[in-house]
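Two proteins were folded this term; both appear here.
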Amino acid sequence: MRNCLDILERLRILIGNLVKIMDSEQFRDFAKTIVDYIADYTENIRDKPAVSTVKPGYLYDLVPSEAPVKGEDWKTVFADIEKIIMPGITHWQSPQFHAFFPTGNSYPAIVGDLLSTGIGCVGFSWITSPACTELEVQVMNWFGKMLQIPKEFLNESEGPGGGIIQGSASEATLVCLLVAKDRMTKHLKAINPQLDDGEIKSKLIAYTSDQSNSSVEKSGLLGSMHMRLLGTDDQGRLTGPILLKSIEEDRKKGLIPCFVVATLGTTGTCSFDCIEDLGPICNENNIWLHIDAAYAGAAFILPEYRYLMAGIQYADSFDVNLHKWLLVNFDCSALWVKNTNHLVNAFNVERMYLNHSYQSQNPQIPDYRHWQIPLGRRFRALKVWFVMRLYGVEGLQAHIRKQIELAELFGRLVEQDRRFEIVTPVTMGLVCFRLKGDNIWTKRLYESLMKSGKIYLVTASVRSQLVIRFVVCSRLTEERDVKFAWNEVSSLADTITSTEEYKESDNIKYLTHG
């Protein structure tokens, strides 16, 4: 985007002038040079290998064991970026990066991050930077309307709903688990004041599917609440009957069901839990329902995919990562909560030095320190604001549609090769594929791909089958990059399938007989 490069150039000059005021001339030159370096890095990233090939400990031999006593010349430091840092970088923005899920990047977001860092505010309450708070309220309202989530989740609603930018979906899950824990404890004590807090908390239990992200299970560890990983149906979905059976089992054991995490777009296969079935069960049993839509939730800005979030009205909280598919740099995760009073009740710690005359329980004028784990927070809303204004809704929709089309292209290439199979339907930007036959062949293919380092993918297990996940991640990915990736997969598969061991296996007999 030419206009974004122009903004980057203007910011380069601004940063140079700010540094000139605050520091020496060499620091100003260093800052301006780094901004140019960022632009050059982005424009030429396709030429870099996707995966770093350094060995563990490579950097310790290159960097002294102690900091310099006297400051070094900035040109020496700048030269060490290519010498020391870049060899150890796995290039997440490379068009050959197809692992995990996208990590957003764009010039508007880079500029927003730079300006936020330059301003350097810490917006934990309204008074510490009114613009930091109010812009976040507004962009969260914008984003919620783009997704068409129920209005009661928005800060501008009449009720206590509201949105906040957390660092990651992992943080959002942990925040909501802790709030659910506090809410349930207070609810039970209100019914029976004789109950002991510790006794109640020791009996609380949470649920999610065995396909949910690892961070969900980790939230249970961090929040001291047992997290049951429930089985899924043949489509990888957590269903109502599975959840209800588990709740009934645990109640018979004297446990207290407290928290459910449902996923829209699982990490392994991008499956979608049955929210319409899970929601009423959670509501009827006073269980907090959190929806983790970290990746796939971004696609709900497209009308043709909104049917996948049917049942969201039952949720207590809902999270989508802007830093995955919406061109906003990490970290930036959008969390909406239907009743933000529960957040304040769980996390409010008052000190005289935190008070100000504009304190309010109004979600439109929040003190966000009550809505999160840390006290301090960055001005993340700036990069969201820049991305949404410069791309517009239509630009973001076009970006996601393009990446879905590229994934479908890769899927067609896989289907044309009879040695391979696609294990789950191509969903969003994800293709799960494997070499037919025993897992050993897919394992060897993946090991060859990682050793080559030309493209970066990761594996998953689907019904005991090892699959390789191909995800369209970089905003720079084009059709030529998809074909490059397939050629790499296909050529390395040639090496494996040409061996005598492969030819003599049951796999080749299976192929021969169709």
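Next, the second protein.
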Amino acid sequence: MALAALDSTIVSTAVPQIVGDLGGFSVFSWLFSGYMLAVTVTLPVYGKLSDTFGRKPVLVCGVVLFLLGSLLCAGAWSMAGLIAFRVVQGLGGGAIQGTVQTIAADLYPLKDRPKIQAKLSTVWAVSAVAGPAIGGLLVAYADWRWIFLINLPVGAVALWLIGRHLRETVPAKPPRPAPDGAGRWSSRLVPRVDWAGALAVFACGGLLLTALVQGGVAWPWLSAPSLGLFAAGAVCAAATVVIERRAAEPIIPGWVWKRRPIAAVNLALGALGLLMVAPTVFLPTYAQSVLGLGPTAAGFVLTVMTLSWPVSAALSSHVYNRVGFRQSALLGIGLAALILLAFPLLPYPGEPWMPALIMLLLGGALGIFQLPLIVGVQSTVEWAERGTATASVLFNRQIGQSVGAALFGAVANATLAGRLAEAPASIRPDLPATLDSVSHALEHPGALSDTAADYLRRAVDAAVDHVYVGAAAAAGLAFLVLLLLAPRRFPVLPDNSSGPGHGDSGAGTGSGTNAGGGGGS
């Protein structure tokens, strides 16, 4: 997991050096967008493959593909080539993120899953702090290409540990009639991979996510590229539904939406991805533009959330073992909504500890929201469905983040445009003429009069406030989805149904009952 976690934080520190060496300033954002697209659209594919062939081969292939992408990135000769190689990295990253979460549920009984999930969350927290520091050191004293080469020893250790210590037995599936070479049917077991469905999911997700990521940035929302991508994505989505309905082993089976616990968690984590855009995307801008902090200090304001999240996740079992998965998640997301609504109440300009405290509390609330839902879904399915179910909820969270970036970006831009249009005539000539000029003006406040600079900071403050109100609405949506759609008690299966070959898999069934098992969906 450290491979994927470090990569998401370490690359951003080297962007100026990369652009200075390779050029391509106008498209460098695709270093991140291309990676994210590849991770998102491959999650359901890898989930199904891990249910068909086992977790270990999928994880090993994912790590190898990630390391190959890292090596290619280190040797990139142009920005276009680097972006393409980042996509290769993302193809491996999708296998890593989903499969590691699934293996955690395979290896550990229900009572121990919060501990291992909290440790995985801790990897992300440590990476959030260590990644920028390591990246800064490598860029300052070596070369930006080392931010990719550093993945190779980490990946080598991961592969050695997986190969030596991960033992799994893939449960045999019941024989399925399959046509033999003469057209007759036999009862031999033939693993089927829905490659047509995988390609359709990849194409559909790529088109729609590209439209969401680039819309309003690279081109206007109502422009021909945006409309064309959305139209092509809609046609591809319809084709995907037809292909998946006819497939014997679909990549995205219908049961992930027909079972109430999984459908509710899919929607709730989609809303979580939506609201996470507020702190991860807009809080650093707020900290630098409104509070006047440097990049490092602004990053720390956000980092405190990643510190409290794994702590509360580790303690969440004490909550859901008493009140159940749904009630624990309702408590967490309800608190998160109130915390998000507190952000617009902060004074202007305020002190840095104020938003830091809000992020600390938000991380604590989201820890007892997300983890019970993931553990709950994994506990309602057998081994042969767990990879698909885990990938489904992670996929929906990634989709939520993409939609949130587009939606809240439009909200922020609309607020800024309105404030610029309403500016007093006395300072209007000093203000940026376009939204694209706002960030440059804030980076060089000396070019503005004191009155104009203060007005612009207040406009940014208002825009971020509106985004946080939207994030609170997304939290409220998640609350309603869980309240109305999720069953009061998740139909938890006994731990010994998770598949053979994982040691102490029969322990802890009692905690499953306390966590909301025993009821129908």
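The first helix runs from residue 2 to 10. Confidence is low (pLDDT under 50) at residues 177-188, 497-521. These notes refer to the second protein only.
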